[in-house]
Design brief:
Elements lengths: L6 E6 L3 H12 L8 E5 L12 E3 H9 L8 E11 L2 E13 L1 H14 L3 E4 L3 E6 L7 E5 L4 E9 L6 H6 L8 E8 L12 E5 L9 E10 L2 E10 L11 H13 L11 E4 L9 E2 L2 E3 L14 H21 L5 H9 L1 H16 L5 H9 L1 H11 L6 H15 L2
Parallel strand pairs: 1-2, 1-9, 2-6, 4-11, 9-16
Antiparallel strand pairs: 3-5, 4-5, 7-8, 8-9, 10-13, 10-14, 11-12, 12-13, 15-16
Helix pairs in contact: 1-3, 1-6, 2-6, 6-7, 6-8, 7-8, 9-11
The structure holds flavin-adenine dinucleotide.
Flavin-adenine dinucleotide (FAD) binds next to helix 1, strand 2, strand 10, strand 14 and helix 6.
Length: about 400
Protein backbone atom coordinates (compact mmCIF):
# COMPACT_ATOMS: atom_id res chain seq x y z
CA UNK A 1 0.00 0.00 0.00
CA UNK A 2 2.90 2.26 0.89
CA UNK A 3 4.11 2.16 -2.72
CA UNK A 4 0.78 3.48 -4.04
CA UNK A 5 2.58 6.75 -3.34
CA UNK A 6 5.75 7.70 -5.16
CA UNK A 7 6.91 9.57 -2.08
CA UNK A 8 6.57 9.23 1.67
CA UNK A 9 6.84 12.98 2.13
CA UNK A 10 6.36 15.86 -0.30
CA UNK A 11 7.93 19.05 1.02
CA UNK A 12 6.52 22.19 -0.57
CA UNK A 13 9.21 24.90 -0.45
CA UNK A 14 12.99 24.56 -0.49
CA UNK A 15 13.90 27.41 1.88
CA UNK A 16 15.53 26.71 5.28
CA UNK A 17 12.35 25.04 6.61
CA UNK A 18 12.01 22.69 3.64
CA UNK A 19 15.71 21.83 3.39
CA UNK A 20 15.97 21.26 7.13
CA UNK A 21 12.93 18.96 7.07
CA UNK A 22 14.45 16.97 4.19
CA UNK A 23 17.89 16.77 5.78
CA UNK A 24 16.48 15.64 9.12
CA UNK A 25 14.20 13.05 7.49
CA UNK A 26 17.19 11.50 5.78
CA UNK A 27 20.06 12.04 8.22
CA UNK A 28 18.26 11.74 11.56
CA UNK A 29 15.11 9.72 10.89
CA UNK A 30 16.58 7.25 8.39
CA UNK A 31 13.96 7.81 5.68
CA UNK A 32 15.21 6.74 2.26
CA UNK A 33 16.14 9.96 0.40
CA UNK A 34 14.42 8.83 -2.80
CA UNK A 35 11.13 8.72 -0.83
CA UNK A 36 11.35 12.47 -0.15
CA UNK A 37 10.62 15.16 -2.72
CA UNK A 38 11.10 18.93 -2.40
CA UNK A 39 9.08 21.10 -4.78
CA UNK A 40 9.98 24.77 -5.10
CA UNK A 41 8.41 27.16 -7.56
CA UNK A 42 11.72 29.03 -7.87
CA UNK A 43 14.83 27.73 -9.54
CA UNK A 44 17.82 27.81 -7.14
CA UNK A 45 19.90 29.76 -6.43
CA UNK A 46 16.90 32.05 -6.02
CA UNK A 47 16.67 35.56 -4.67
CA UNK A 48 15.22 35.79 -1.17
CA UNK A 49 14.81 39.30 0.22
CA UNK A 50 16.08 39.04 3.78
CA UNK A 51 18.64 40.57 6.14
CA UNK A 52 20.07 37.06 6.59
CA UNK A 53 20.80 37.06 10.35
CA UNK A 54 20.93 33.44 11.48
CA UNK A 55 21.00 32.91 15.21
CA UNK A 56 23.49 30.42 16.63
CA UNK A 57 20.56 28.12 17.42
CA UNK A 58 19.98 27.46 13.70
CA UNK A 59 23.67 26.78 13.10
CA UNK A 60 23.76 24.33 16.02
CA UNK A 61 20.71 22.41 14.74
CA UNK A 62 22.32 22.08 11.30
CA UNK A 63 25.66 21.10 12.75
CA UNK A 64 24.00 18.28 14.74
CA UNK A 65 23.14 16.61 11.40
CA UNK A 66 26.58 17.29 9.95
CA UNK A 67 25.72 20.39 7.94
CA UNK A 68 28.26 23.20 8.10
CA UNK A 69 27.59 26.59 6.58
CA UNK A 70 30.39 27.31 4.11
CA UNK A 71 28.93 30.26 2.19
CA UNK A 72 30.40 33.74 2.86
CA UNK A 73 29.07 35.21 6.07
CA UNK A 74 29.66 38.02 8.54
CA UNK A 75 29.92 37.02 12.19
CA UNK A 76 27.51 38.87 14.50
CA UNK A 77 29.92 39.74 17.31
CA UNK A 78 27.44 41.68 19.38
CA UNK A 79 24.65 44.19 19.40
CA UNK A 80 24.02 47.92 19.65
CA UNK A 81 20.56 48.99 20.77
CA UNK A 82 19.80 52.59 19.83
CA UNK A 83 17.14 54.87 21.26
CA UNK A 84 17.35 58.52 20.23
CA UNK A 85 20.87 59.69 21.00
CA UNK A 86 21.63 56.85 23.42
CA UNK A 87 23.32 53.60 22.34
CA UNK A 88 23.85 50.52 24.50
CA UNK A 89 26.48 48.08 23.26
CA UNK A 90 27.21 44.48 24.23
CA UNK A 91 29.87 42.32 22.65
CA UNK A 92 28.86 38.67 22.73
CA UNK A 93 28.53 36.33 19.74
CA UNK A 94 25.04 35.87 18.30
CA UNK A 95 25.39 33.91 15.04
CA UNK A 96 26.13 34.91 11.45
CA UNK A 97 24.69 37.06 8.67
CA UNK A 98 24.45 35.21 5.35
CA UNK A 99 23.21 36.06 1.88
CA UNK A 100 20.03 34.05 1.55
CA UNK A 101 20.55 33.33 -2.13
CA UNK A 102 23.75 31.46 -1.27
CA UNK A 103 22.72 30.00 2.08
CA UNK A 104 19.41 28.54 0.89
CA UNK A 105 20.99 27.14 -2.29
CA UNK A 106 23.72 25.45 -0.24
CA UNK A 107 21.22 23.79 2.11
CA UNK A 108 19.00 22.60 -0.72
CA UNK A 109 21.99 21.32 -2.67
CA UNK A 110 23.10 19.35 0.40
CA UNK A 111 19.70 17.64 0.49
CA UNK A 112 19.94 16.98 -3.25
CA UNK A 113 23.40 15.45 -2.82
CA UNK A 114 21.96 13.23 -0.08
CA UNK A 115 19.62 11.80 -2.73
CA UNK A 116 16.45 13.76 -1.97
CA UNK A 117 14.45 14.45 -5.15
CA UNK A 118 14.72 18.21 -5.47
CA UNK A 119 12.39 19.60 -8.13
CA UNK A 120 13.07 23.32 -8.19
CA UNK A 121 11.36 25.48 -10.77
CA UNK A 122 8.23 23.37 -10.13
CA UNK A 123 5.66 24.86 -7.77
CA UNK A 124 2.55 23.52 -6.11
CA UNK A 125 -0.62 24.54 -7.96
CA UNK A 126 -3.33 22.28 -6.55
CA UNK A 127 -3.61 19.62 -3.88
CA UNK A 128 -6.13 16.78 -3.55
CA UNK A 129 -6.57 14.31 -0.73
CA UNK A 130 -6.46 10.66 -1.71
CA UNK A 131 -9.77 8.82 -1.50
CA UNK A 132 -10.46 6.35 1.24
CA UNK A 133 -9.42 6.16 4.86
CA UNK A 134 -5.69 6.28 4.34
CA UNK A 135 -3.85 9.57 4.38
CA UNK A 136 -2.29 10.68 1.12
CA UNK A 137 -2.23 13.47 -1.39
CA UNK A 138 -1.92 14.20 -5.07
CA UNK A 139 -0.08 17.44 -5.70
CA UNK A 140 -0.44 19.11 -9.06
CA UNK A 141 2.60 21.12 -10.06
CA UNK A 142 3.13 24.19 -12.19
CA UNK A 143 4.66 21.90 -14.86
CA UNK A 144 1.40 19.98 -15.10
CA UNK A 145 2.87 16.96 -13.29
CA UNK A 146 1.21 14.97 -10.51
CA UNK A 147 3.15 14.03 -7.39
CA UNK A 148 1.65 11.49 -5.00
CA UNK A 149 2.80 11.50 -1.39
CA UNK A 150 1.54 10.09 1.91
CA UNK A 151 2.32 13.22 3.89
CA UNK A 152 3.00 16.84 3.07
CA UNK A 153 5.25 19.37 4.78
CA UNK A 154 4.11 22.89 3.93
CA UNK A 155 7.36 24.89 4.01
CA UNK A 156 6.34 27.49 1.44
CA UNK A 157 6.87 30.59 3.52
CA UNK A 158 4.95 33.79 4.19
CA UNK A 159 2.69 33.46 1.16
CA UNK A 160 2.17 29.68 1.66
CA UNK A 161 0.15 28.31 -1.26
CA UNK A 162 -0.41 25.09 0.69
CA UNK A 163 -2.11 27.01 3.52
CA UNK A 164 -4.31 28.84 1.04
CA UNK A 165 -5.25 25.67 -0.86
CA UNK A 166 -6.07 23.87 2.39
CA UNK A 167 -7.98 26.85 3.79
CA UNK A 168 -5.86 27.28 6.94
CA UNK A 169 -6.88 30.62 8.44
CA UNK A 170 -4.43 33.39 9.31
CA UNK A 171 -4.15 33.72 13.09
CA UNK A 172 -2.97 37.33 13.17
CA UNK A 173 -2.02 40.36 11.10
CA UNK A 174 1.19 40.10 9.14
CA UNK A 175 4.26 42.24 9.84
CA UNK A 176 5.69 44.65 7.26
CA UNK A 177 9.33 44.92 6.19
CA UNK A 178 11.56 46.76 3.77
CA UNK A 179 15.17 45.71 3.13
CA UNK A 180 18.08 47.15 1.13
CA UNK A 181 21.86 46.80 0.91
CA UNK A 182 24.35 49.66 0.69
CA UNK A 183 28.04 50.29 0.98
CA UNK A 184 29.40 51.17 4.43
CA UNK A 185 29.19 54.83 5.44
CA UNK A 186 30.93 56.92 8.06
CA UNK A 187 27.90 56.61 10.35
CA UNK A 188 28.21 52.78 10.44
CA UNK A 189 30.40 52.72 13.52
CA UNK A 190 29.31 49.25 14.67
CA UNK A 191 29.52 47.48 11.31
CA UNK A 192 33.33 47.29 11.09
CA UNK A 193 33.36 45.66 14.51
CA UNK A 194 30.75 43.07 13.46
CA UNK A 195 27.98 44.58 15.60
CA UNK A 196 24.32 44.51 14.57
CA UNK A 197 22.28 47.65 15.21
CA UNK A 198 18.67 47.60 16.37
CA UNK A 199 17.36 51.17 16.36
CA UNK A 200 14.21 51.53 18.44
CA UNK A 201 13.94 55.29 17.81
CA UNK A 202 11.35 54.64 15.10
CA UNK A 203 8.83 53.84 17.83
CA UNK A 204 8.56 57.60 18.28
CA UNK A 205 7.04 57.64 14.78
CA UNK A 206 4.29 55.24 15.93
CA UNK A 207 5.88 52.10 14.51
CA UNK A 208 5.92 48.79 16.36
CA UNK A 209 9.36 47.44 15.52
CA UNK A 210 12.85 48.64 14.72
CA UNK A 211 15.22 49.84 12.04
CA UNK A 212 18.32 47.67 11.50
CA UNK A 213 21.89 47.93 10.16
CA UNK A 214 23.60 44.52 9.88
CA UNK A 215 27.05 43.68 8.48
CA UNK A 216 26.73 41.53 5.35
CA UNK A 217 29.21 39.99 2.92
CA UNK A 218 28.10 41.01 -0.55
CA UNK A 219 30.24 40.55 -3.68
CA UNK A 220 33.20 39.64 -1.47
CA UNK A 221 33.03 42.91 0.50
CA UNK A 222 31.68 43.89 3.87
CA UNK A 223 28.56 45.94 3.20
CA UNK A 224 25.41 46.84 5.15
CA UNK A 225 21.98 45.29 5.14
CA UNK A 226 19.48 47.93 6.26
CA UNK A 227 15.78 47.81 6.75
CA UNK A 228 12.73 48.30 8.84
CA UNK A 229 10.37 45.91 10.60
CA UNK A 230 6.89 46.92 11.71
CA UNK A 231 5.11 44.18 13.67
CA UNK A 232 1.73 45.65 12.65
CA UNK A 233 0.01 44.72 15.89
CA UNK A 234 -3.58 45.64 16.48
CA UNK A 235 -3.10 49.30 17.42
CA UNK A 236 -5.56 51.15 15.16
CA UNK A 237 -3.41 54.31 15.11
CA UNK A 238 -0.23 52.50 14.01
CA UNK A 239 1.01 53.35 10.51
CA UNK A 240 1.10 50.78 7.73
CA UNK A 241 2.10 50.45 4.08
CA UNK A 242 3.38 53.73 2.68
CA UNK A 243 3.88 55.33 6.07
CA UNK A 244 6.28 52.55 7.11
CA UNK A 245 8.26 53.60 4.07
CA UNK A 246 8.14 57.24 5.22
CA UNK A 247 9.60 56.26 8.59
CA UNK A 248 12.29 54.25 6.80
CA UNK A 249 13.04 57.29 4.62
CA UNK A 250 13.69 59.37 7.77
CA UNK A 251 15.86 56.65 9.36
CA UNK A 252 17.92 56.38 6.17
CA UNK A 253 18.21 60.17 5.87
CA UNK A 254 19.73 60.25 9.38
CA UNK A 255 22.42 57.96 7.93
CA UNK A 256 22.90 60.16 4.87
CA UNK A 257 21.00 57.85 2.47
CA UNK A 258 18.36 59.16 0.09
CA UNK A 259 15.51 56.64 -0.14
CA UNK A 260 14.73 57.81 -3.68
CA UNK A 261 18.10 56.45 -4.78
CA UNK A 262 17.62 52.88 -3.52
CA UNK A 263 15.50 50.04 -4.88
CA UNK A 264 12.87 48.95 -2.38
CA UNK A 265 10.02 46.48 -2.20
CA UNK A 266 7.65 45.81 0.69
CA UNK A 267 7.47 42.32 2.22
CA UNK A 268 5.35 40.71 4.87
CA UNK A 269 5.92 38.13 7.61
CA UNK A 270 3.50 35.71 9.24
CA UNK A 271 3.86 35.84 13.04
CA UNK A 272 3.77 32.80 15.29
CA UNK A 273 1.13 33.50 17.95
CA UNK A 274 -0.65 31.32 20.53
CA UNK A 275 -3.53 30.72 18.05
CA UNK A 276 -1.21 29.51 15.26
CA UNK A 277 -2.13 26.18 13.67
CA UNK A 278 0.71 23.73 13.00
CA UNK A 279 -1.08 21.00 11.10
CA UNK A 280 -4.12 19.73 9.27
CA UNK A 281 -4.76 16.05 8.56
CA UNK A 282 -1.72 14.61 6.80
CA UNK A 283 0.07 17.98 6.62
CA UNK A 284 2.54 19.76 8.89
CA UNK A 285 3.24 23.48 8.58
CA UNK A 286 6.94 24.28 8.94
CA UNK A 287 8.91 27.53 9.15
CA UNK A 288 7.17 30.71 8.13
CA UNK A 289 4.20 28.78 6.75
CA UNK A 290 3.57 28.12 10.47
CA UNK A 291 4.85 31.42 11.83
CA UNK A 292 7.96 33.36 12.87
CA UNK A 293 9.20 35.69 15.61
CA UNK A 294 6.79 38.61 16.09
CA UNK A 295 9.20 40.82 18.05
CA UNK A 296 12.11 40.60 15.58
CA UNK A 297 10.42 39.48 12.33
CA UNK A 298 13.11 36.79 12.13
CA UNK A 299 12.58 33.14 11.29
CA UNK A 300 15.57 31.41 9.70
CA UNK A 301 16.84 29.58 12.78
CA UNK A 302 13.25 28.93 13.85
CA UNK A 303 12.50 27.39 10.43
CA UNK A 304 15.56 25.17 10.74
CA UNK A 305 14.59 23.89 14.18
CA UNK A 306 10.95 23.38 13.18
CA UNK A 307 12.27 21.25 10.29
CA UNK A 308 13.99 19.00 12.84
CA UNK A 309 10.79 18.58 14.85
CA UNK A 310 8.64 18.12 11.72
CA UNK A 311 10.92 15.38 10.41
CA UNK A 312 10.63 13.41 13.67
CA UNK A 313 6.83 13.57 13.58
CA UNK A 314 6.61 12.77 9.87
CA UNK A 315 8.79 9.71 10.46
CA UNK A 316 6.51 8.73 13.36
CA UNK A 317 3.44 9.13 11.15
CA UNK A 318 5.02 7.02 8.42
CA UNK A 319 5.58 4.27 10.95
CA UNK A 320 2.13 4.48 12.57
CA UNK A 321 0.01 5.63 9.62
CA UNK A 322 -1.59 8.25 11.90
CA UNK A 323 -2.18 11.46 9.89
CA UNK A 324 -2.89 13.61 12.95
CA UNK A 325 -0.08 15.88 14.09
CA UNK A 326 -1.28 17.26 17.43
CA UNK A 327 1.93 15.96 19.00
CA UNK A 328 3.96 17.92 16.43
CA UNK A 329 2.16 21.12 17.35
CA UNK A 330 2.74 20.39 21.05
CA UNK A 331 6.42 19.66 20.55
CA UNK A 332 6.98 22.78 18.46
CA UNK A 333 5.44 24.86 21.24
CA UNK A 334 7.63 23.28 23.91
CA UNK A 335 10.83 23.20 21.81
CA UNK A 336 13.45 25.91 22.24
CA UNK A 337 12.06 27.64 19.16
CA UNK A 338 8.41 27.33 20.16
CA UNK A 339 9.00 28.76 23.62
CA UNK A 340 11.00 31.55 22.06
CA UNK A 341 8.26 32.28 19.51
CA UNK A 342 5.52 32.34 22.13
CA UNK A 343 7.57 34.57 24.43
CA UNK A 344 8.24 36.79 21.46
CA UNK A 345 4.54 37.12 20.59
CA UNK A 346 3.88 38.06 24.23
CA UNK A 347 6.80 40.50 24.29
CA UNK A 348 5.96 42.29 21.01
CA UNK A 349 2.69 43.54 22.47
CA UNK A 350 4.49 44.91 25.52
CA UNK A 351 7.82 46.20 24.26
CA UNK A 352 6.24 47.95 21.26
CA UNK A 353 3.31 49.40 23.21
CA UNK A 354 3.51 53.05 24.39
CA UNK A 355 3.79 51.64 27.93
CA UNK A 356 6.85 49.64 26.83
CA UNK A 357 9.03 52.77 26.99
CA UNK A 358 10.64 51.78 30.36
CA UNK A 359 11.49 48.31 28.98
CA UNK A 360 13.10 49.88 25.91
CA UNK A 361 15.08 52.33 28.05
CA UNK A 362 16.17 49.43 30.27
CA UNK A 363 17.44 47.49 27.25
CA UNK A 364 19.49 50.45 26.05
CA UNK A 365 20.92 51.25 29.49
CA UNK A 366 21.50 47.82 31.00
CA UNK A 367 24.42 45.65 29.94
CA UNK A 368 22.84 42.75 31.83
CA UNK A 369 19.56 43.11 29.90
CA UNK A 370 21.32 43.10 26.53
CA UNK A 371 23.52 40.14 27.46
CA UNK A 372 20.36 38.22 28.49
CA UNK A 373 18.66 39.28 25.24
CA UNK A 374 21.58 37.89 23.24
CA UNK A 375 21.48 34.59 25.11
CA UNK A 376 17.72 34.43 24.49
CA UNK A 377 18.30 35.24 20.80
CA UNK A 378 20.78 32.33 20.60
CA UNK A 379 18.05 30.03 21.89
CA UNK A 380 19.40 29.67 25.43
CA UNK A 381 17.02 29.32 28.34
CA UNK A 382 17.34 32.13 30.91
CA UNK A 383 17.68 30.90 34.48
CA UNK A 384 15.07 31.90 37.07
CA UNK A 385 17.74 33.96 38.83
CA UNK A 386 18.47 35.90 35.61
CA UNK A 387 14.76 36.46 34.99
CA UNK A 388 14.37 37.69 38.55
CA UNK A 389 17.31 40.08 38.23
CA UNK A 390 15.90 41.39 34.95
CA UNK A 391 12.49 41.90 36.55
CA UNK A 392 14.04 43.84 39.42
CA UNK A 393 16.17 45.90 37.04
CA UNK A 394 13.13 46.73 34.93
CA UNK A 395 11.13 47.67 38.01
CA UNK A 396 13.96 49.95 39.17
CA UNK A 397 14.08 51.58 35.72
CA UNK A 398 10.39 52.52 36.07
CA UNK A 399 11.38 54.96 38.79
CA UNK A 400 14.69 56.08 37.25
C1 LIG B 1 12.89 41.80 4.38
C2 LIG B 1 13.03 40.61 5.29
C3 LIG B 1 14.12 40.52 6.16
C4 LIG B 1 14.25 39.41 6.99
N1 LIG B 1 15.37 39.30 7.79
C5 LIG B 1 15.54 38.20 8.55
C6 LIG B 1 16.74 38.00 9.30
O1 LIG B 1 17.66 38.81 9.30
N2 LIG B 1 16.85 36.87 10.05
C7 LIG B 1 15.87 35.93 10.08
O2 LIG B 1 16.02 34.92 10.79
N3 LIG B 1 14.74 36.08 9.37
C8 LIG B 1 14.56 37.16 8.59
N4 LIG B 1 13.43 37.29 7.83
C9 LIG B 1 12.45 36.22 7.86
C10 LIG B 1 12.96 35.04 7.04
O3 LIG B 1 13.22 35.45 5.73
C11 LIG B 1 11.94 33.91 7.03
O4 LIG B 1 11.50 33.68 8.33
C12 LIG B 1 12.54 32.61 6.48
O5 LIG B 1 12.86 32.77 5.12
C13 LIG B 1 11.56 31.46 6.66
O6 LIG B 1 12.07 30.32 6.01
P1 LIG B 1 11.07 29.31 5.29
O7 LIG B 1 11.90 28.22 4.76
O8 LIG B 1 9.94 29.03 6.18
O9 LIG B 1 10.43 30.17 4.09
P2 LIG B 1 11.15 30.77 2.78
O10 LIG B 1 12.56 31.02 3.03
O11 LIG B 1 10.29 31.92 2.39
O12 LIG B 1 11.03 29.62 1.72
C14 LIG B 1 9.80 29.27 1.16
C15 LIG B 1 10.06 28.65 -0.19
O13 LIG B 1 8.80 28.20 -0.70
C16 LIG B 1 8.78 28.42 -2.08
N5 LIG B 1 7.38 28.47 -2.51
C17 LIG B 1 6.48 29.43 -2.33
N6 LIG B 1 5.31 29.09 -2.92
C18 LIG B 1 5.49 27.86 -3.45
C19 LIG B 1 4.68 26.98 -4.20
N7 LIG B 1 3.42 27.30 -4.53
N8 LIG B 1 5.18 25.80 -4.59
C20 LIG B 1 6.47 25.46 -4.29
N9 LIG B 1 7.29 26.28 -3.62
C21 LIG B 1 6.81 27.46 -3.20
C22 LIG B 1 9.51 29.74 -2.26
O14 LIG B 1 10.03 29.87 -3.59
C23 LIG B 1 10.61 29.62 -1.22
O15 LIG B 1 11.81 29.12 -1.76
C24 LIG B 1 13.27 38.39 6.98
C25 LIG B 1 12.18 38.49 6.11
C26 LIG B 1 12.07 39.58 5.26
C27 LIG B 1 10.90 39.64 4.33
Amino acid sequence: MRDAFEYDVAIVGGGPAGSSTALHLVRREGIRPARVVVLDKARFPRDKPCAGAVSQLGLDVLSAVGVAVTVPSAVMKGVRVLLGDVAGETVEPMGVVVRRTEFDAELLETARRDGVHVRDGEGLRAIRRADGRRAGFTLETSLGQEVRARFVAAADGAGSTTRKLLGVREPDRKGHLYVLDTERRGTDVGIDRGLVDFDLSILADGLEGYYWDFPTMLDGRLQVSRGIYHANLTRPDAPSGESVKDVLARALARRGIDIAKVRLRPFSTRPFVPRSTGWVKGVVLVGEAYGIDQTTGEGIAQAIEMGRVAAAHLAGALASGNPRFEAYEREVRTSTTGRHLLQSAWMARRVYAPLGQPARRFLVRSERARAAAIRWYRGERLSTATQLRLGLGLAASLFA
